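Title: Prediction job returns without error message
Component: structure pipeline
Severity: low
Priority: P3
Assignee: unassigned

Description:
Job completed but the reporter wants confirmation the result is attached to the right record. Sequence as submitted:
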Amino acid sequence: MGQRSIVFDEIATLADQRILLIDGAMGTMIQREHLEENDFRGEVLKNHPKPLKGNNDLLSITRPDIIYKVSKLTEFLSLSYRHTFSFVKD
């Protein structure tokens, strides 16, 4: 059995026992969309006084279609994938 199969078997076993979360290269996948300032502003933040490009958390509000598209790329996983690009732990 190859290394890949061993890893997937372990993940499947863990998924049977508990909820699993994965957090990874979401920012990289978002960058591949080549978004512009207006994508980050949307209608809601169109008059915001500061530049917002690169604040990927805003895309959940201004471009949820992008977050959905990027999240769909991980659908083959039996894991819950969350958009926590700027998550800060206290």
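Comment from assignee: result matches the submitted record. Helices lie at 3-17, 26-31, 37-41, 59-62, 64-72.
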